[in-house]
Amino acid sequence: MNLIKRIFKGDPVIWIIFAILCLYSLVFVFSATSTMVYKNDDMLGPISRHFGMLVLGFTFGILVMHNIPYRYFKLGGLILPFIFVLLVITALWGVEINGEKRWLEIFGIQFQPSELAKLSLISYIALFLSKRGILTDRQIFTWILVGSLLICGAIFPTNGSTALLIFIFTLVMLFVGQTSLKRLGKLAVVLLAIGAMGFLVLKFTPESILEHIPRAVTWKARIERFFQDEPMVEANGTIKDEYYQVVHAQIAIAEGNIIGKGPGYGDQRDFLPQAYSDFIYAIILEEGGLLPGVFLLFVYLALLVRVGMIAKKCHSLYAKYLIIGCGLLLGMQAMANMAVAVHLIPVTGQPLPLISRGGTSTIISCFYIGIILSVSRFEANIGNEEDSLPEEEIKPDAGSDNTLIAEAPQIDASVEKI
Prior knowledge:
The protein is mostly helical. It has 18 helices and three strands.
């Protein structure tokens, strides 16, 4: 027992949530990768790779990260310009998979720089929000908005849904950080105007011209399919090609009922192209049923609530915004993936954090958990009080965001609501 306490430090609730998500992942990814097994004639190959990624993420993303004091994560925000360069290189000369250049290969290792960008941007935003009282509201707003727009602009040509998710995340963080509502309102008006203009351009521009704009035809088709009220199946029962994924996801959900067919007994995993990634929630509902599917939703909500509770105990503004950012991004990705599976929003291609089969996304999701555990240990003093920072290390000093606590009671009030 003592050995376990020495290894698994930090908030025990976060550890339990992580364990539940990993269990879901191993069970349903093993089932959903059946088509890969047929193609490669290797029953354990696909799940072995995924298990290896979870182990890698657990080792370096959690065991290592949760032993590092959170203040060192400020370096992640400082490397945002370097991440921007990686994104530009990826868009121009990246590895093309499924028709898009979203991967970069260095020394034989392929990864998605967009996942690194999310991690770096969280630290970047938390760093500036923690300087309230040192920087003006306008300065904080400008620096955060410019940094986010640069990252989103570099990602948008090859992965519009991820760029949109990151930008929405930025707006939510600005709101949580108590940026002036007037300033956010002006930004909202500008964004609505740009969005309306973009929609009109997509709607009325001939496809012969849109074909020269990366992903423009795909965006137009997805938006039109989502809002058009037309049959998704031909009169003879044939599913229209453009609705193939959506229809099979709905069939999976309908066949799952309350108790499901049982792991390994689902049919739609053989029809959905990304059953183990983008549409794994549909497979969970088919094979596990409604109850495990709803329970998983509550697990992600519990993660958000627990992150808010930990943030409430933090004295450092940077720690508060860092942990809120990590929890919020995990929650937003999860909700986006689930919403696609049940056809609430157009197909986005967002993985289900810590459950979908993946490489970079799985490891980076483990980094989020590691950061949350680090903050819970070294700042919120949860789970291992004997390892908390000495009193002199957490004493406010000049230039530290801790000096702002007394000056910014409204920030504490905002965290109380989270």
